[in-house]
Amino acid sequence: MSIFLGRWARAPPVGAARARALVVDLDETLVRRPRGALDAALMYGAPFVTVGVPYSGAAEGVRALRTRGVGVVAVTARWRLAEASTERMLVAAGVERTPVVYAGGWHPGDASRAAFKARALRHLRAAGWALAAGVGDRASDVRAYAAEDVPALAVVHAEGEPRGAPAPERLDALLRTERALRDAAAAAHAPPPRVIFFTDCARAAARAGLAQFRAGEPPPNAPGALFRPARDGASVWAQLEEFLGRGGCGLGL
Question: What SS3 class is residue 51?
Answer without folding.
Answer: coil
